[in-house]
Amino acid sequence: MRLRSLLIASTAILALVAGGANAADKAQKQAEIRKATSASLQKFYKKRPALQKEVEAAPGYGIFTTYGVSFIVGGGGGTGLAHDKAANKDYFMNVGKASAGLQVGLAQQDTLIVFKSQEALQKFVDKGWEFGGGGAISAGAGGHTAGGGTGEQTIADAMTYTLTKNGLDVGGALQGAKFWKDKDLN
């Protein structure tokens, strides 16, 4: 009987410790994403100072760091967050990208999405799709964009801006991206 009680107590203690470790791990990951997105925002503001006023006036924004490879077809993924100013809430999100066209690249990029309406922000958080096409030559090294290295695109009631932090992207392609809430971090 004592052995059974000891096993039950041990199991309960391990469950509490594991739950606490998961909460600490979750908080640490959230803090890392917040730190990375804050640094990315500062790079956008330095490259294009008018963006700071645009972000401040918007009901919300999303900022993501992605890594990708392309040669005719491409793919990539990353993490980031969407910030809802009215609710003062961050939605931790993942992104996956795919593309096809005349392109060659290996790059780490930051993407900033500035929402023009609360409805557009909520639709993005709930559904998360973006589709578009474009062409650019962009390069970056050591976290700094070289040459043009920036792009912008209008999506449903939002503006999207991109900086290449490291790597090279050359060409034009049809591309799609899927953004979704990270179930472990929200």
What does this molecule look like?
With 186 residues, the protein is α+β, with helices and mostly antiparallel strands. It has one domain (44-181). Helix content is 34%, strand content 53%. It is built from three helices and six strands; from the N terminus they run ααββαββββ. It has helices at residues 2-47, 50-57, 118-126; strands at residues 60-84, 89-115, 129-141, 144-146, 150-155, 158-181. Strands 1, 2, 3, 4, 5 and 6 form a six-stranded antiparallel β-sheet that branches. Strand 5 (150-155) and strand 6 (158-181) form a beta hairpin. The termini are far apart. The model is unreliable at 1-21 and 136-151 (pLDDT under 50).
